[in-house]
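Order emerges. One example.
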Amino acid sequence: MAKLPQTFRLEPHARKKVEKRRAAEKDARLYNRLSALLWLDEGRTREEVAHLLEVHVRTIKNWLKQYGKGGLTSLCTLSYKGDVGNLSVAQGQQLKAEVATGRFKCAAEAAAWVETTFGVCFTPAGMRKLLTRLGCTFHKSSSFLFKANRDKQKEFLQDYEADKGKAQQKPMRRYFIDGVHPLYGMEVMFYCWLVRGQRYEVGVGGGRKRLNILGAYCPDDQEYLDRRYVKENLNAQSVIALFKLMMERHPTTTHFRIYLDNARYQHALVLKEWIAQTQQEHGVFFDLKHLPAYSPNLNLIERLWKFLRKQALQKWHPTFEDMQQAVAEVLDHLERYQEQIATVMTERFRLTPEASTIVVGVGNFVA
């Protein structure tokens, strides 16, 4: 068998790939493998790298062979899955199926179920390791509005896809619009890593001041427009002001397709009268397409509001004015977040789940 050369070198483009992969890697095992390549390329010996990573020199040699045969794809593939301990393979799959029902709120509950079902005892720590080996993860459940009508959502998306073709054929601009209301001092709570037993106290305000924003997002060219208010609530006049801003920005456009929810002020008579008058006097038509009820999942701009909260509001601002400035720094400079926005504001919409029984709290709701 041919021996590996004692010196290891990466081509410049190959090193960049390894560095990029390591920067994005979350698994410590793969991070160590990639670090080994970079350190060897820098001139360290295999013994030095093995000492730094606290592994045997033979492990470093195996990694090099794996990289030499299959490149990064092979090196970053973990073939070892572990076993299910004192459970049989069938019992492990039965446990995994039970996990999929969402019944276990913690590892101790899963351990109690295994003991009752199979007569095998696990500590909570041991159960966490077992669930990981079975391909299970611990994360927050997703929510949706159970009153939403899935068929109406499908119908809306069919019309939406048809609109995309029309927008390319004639000068029509499309916008999703919605309001958001950041409360001063009330949206600063967040998750973070802490030392076991530590409490990290975050001060909050009284929630008496809020910023009212009515925004519009164009999925075709990623344009964002809005109207912001401190003292006034959003109403039909706010919508009219936003529509006037669209006309100012695009004076040659005569057809605006607007996707919006069913807020009462967006059905107001004064708004309908203004739209009719604008079409008659200026030949500009604002075509309102209301979303199905209980369908925020279909309003693309809702994702932008979630991004805004993460970037600007999950931190303490000394004054209400500071909070407004933080919001403006995000919304007025979305080009700074172009890469993140591209992954968030995709035109892939999640429909309401199709289920005969929907879990609500601790009971069941039969649809």
About this structure: The first strand starts at residue 172 and ends at 180.
